[in-house]
Amino acid sequence: MQHCRTPVVEVLAQLAHVPLSYSHHPTWNRVRLMSQLGRLGIIGVGPSAIYVLQQLQREIDRFLPSLTDVYLFDKRTALGIGMPYDRHTTDDYNLCNISSAEIPPLDQSLVHWLQSLSDEQLSSHGITRSQIDEGETYRRTTLGDYFQQQYTSIASSLRARGLILHEFRNCAVSDVVDQRATDGVEIRFGNDESVVVDRVVIATGHSFLEPDEPEQGYFSSPWPMQKLIPDEGQFHNFEIGLLGASLSAFDVVSSLSHRHGAFIRRDKLAYEPFPGTDGFRMVLHSAQGWLPHLQYEQMEPFRTVYRPVDRDTMLSLRDDSGFLLLDDYFNHVCRPALTVAFQKDRRADIVELLNTGQATLEAFVQRMSDEHTSDDPFALMRLEMQDAKGSGKSLNRRKTKRSYVCRNRKQRSGHQARISDVHQLQRPGRARF
Ligand SMILES: Cc1cc2nc3c(=O)[nH]c(=O)nc-3n(C[C@H](O)[C@H](O)[C@H](O)COP(=O)(O)OP(=O)(O)OC[C@H]3O[C@@H](n4cnc5c(N)ncnc54)[C@H](O)[C@@H]3O)c2cc1C
């Protein structure tokens, strides 16, 4: 998509209630015209598009009657699912790192949707009724089915209000061209086909542009995961290097480990490789030696923890050019929020550091990183697992995110992870990455 310009920003700004302080902006006149918006295009119908539609639904009286048509394009047949939650890209062993309580509210929460399913349907998601809990995390494909249902529900409610929704399924958009003369946007797809709308939202999410080179033994990303999974009865009897040791790498670990062995719980959970898989091994390489964050139970809702200031305060922090400087963000938003958090955690040393003003963003990050430094990040992760399990008993903890760094980075080129270690950490009761 080469020619796209301001209309995208304008639609998003309008949907997000741009404050009047924006009125000095050169595009404001066009933004004001949004109340006369007739046709809206949305490219990519994943979770972001669902939230755009939800915003339309909430503000529908501002858009009607001038808004008449919404054109929805997705290169997939099913709408609403999104790339990370789609069975075409994701394996059933790949888990969400977000629970029902943390998903920004839609018409129906994930938990309520799960409760509405039959036992048989739940079992197809690997869930029993007693496992339904708003703090629990499930397969990503389960979240995809939920999002698809939410899309259908919001779409039908918009139709009921008189909007015409045009769904272009299985339709990859190839370009978006701003038409200055008519103040419209042309959306191009297929063989020279196009639709002209007044404004467009691009919500195409993730793209992995670098090509795979399977004959060189190289994949630029694990997606779709199916390309990495051996055929039934076949094994990858060789060492697999993973460039990166965070969430995508752990998806690969979970998908491939289940194809090459079984996780058996006796005294503790152990990994037993299938016969004939002696050569199978995965090595995670991480430039910094970081492993993914482990998150666990908290009292405060997720959104409270991560929204210590309101929108107006945030906007007031912009400089004359409209930019929010990282240092200003740290000093005005993070520093006070961190001070409160560390006071709760009785960390007077860090509170003092923050209050003296000596802790720049870099210094603070360095200090926190130094606290979690070890020659063996997996050993540290195990320690945090114990913490996480303990947190179930005392729910007055805040959610903690930590990362683990190898102390001697220069001497270590990668983490040699035993699969059993990794898996034990990946399904840790109520803790998760
Ligand atoms: C592997 C992975 C796992 C993740 N797991 C989690 C998680 O567990 N929890 C969490 O909160 N977040 C997770 N995320 C973050 C994730 O980005 C968001 O949760 C969410 O998927 C973003 O939604 P989106 O609609 O912006 O993009 P996407 O979900 O990527 O959806 C984009 C949509 O656009 C369509 N599209 C793309 N290009 C075109 C085109 N040219 N024409 C037409 N249609 C097009 C796609 O088919 C897709 O339907 C994960 C991200 C990745 C990559």
Structural summary, described in words:
- The chain has 433 residues and is of the alpha/beta class.
- Among the domains are: 6-202, FAD/NAD(P)-binding domain (3-Layer(bba) Sandwich), CATH 3.50.50.60; 214-285, no CATH class.
- It is built from 15 helices and 13 strands.
- The chain has helices at 6-15, 28-32, 47-58, 60-63, 110-115, 119-124, 140-160, 247-260, 302-305, 311-316, 326-344, 348-355, 361-371, 377-391, 419-426; strands at residues 39-43, 69-73, 164-168, 173-179, 184-189, 193-197, 199-202, 239-243, 261-265, 269-273, 281-285, 373-374, 405-406.
- The longest helix is centred in the middle third of the chain and has 21 residues, at 140-160.
- The radius of gyration is 24 Å and the shape is globular.
- Mean pLDDT is 81; it is low at 1-33 and 392-433.
- The structure holds flavin-adenine dinucleotide.
Q: What bound compounds does this protein have?
A: flavin-adenine dinucleotide
Figure out the total of helices. 15
Radius of gyration over alpha carbons? 24 Å
Largest sheet: 4 strands, parallel
The geometry reads as: globular
The CATH H-level superfamily of the domain at 6-202 is FAD/NAD(P)-binding domain
- Low-pLDDT ranges: 1-33, 392-433
CATH topology name of the domain at 6-202: FAD/NAD(P)-binding domain
Q: Summarize the amount of helix as a percent range.
A: 25-40%
Beta strands, count: 13
Mean pLDDT level:
81
Estimate what percentage of residues fall within beta strands. Answer: 5-15%
- Give helix and strand order, one letter per element, not per position: HHEHHEHHHEEEEEEHEEEHHHHHEHEH
**Which CATH architecture of the domain at 6-202?**
3-Layer(bba) Sandwich
Structural class: alpha/beta
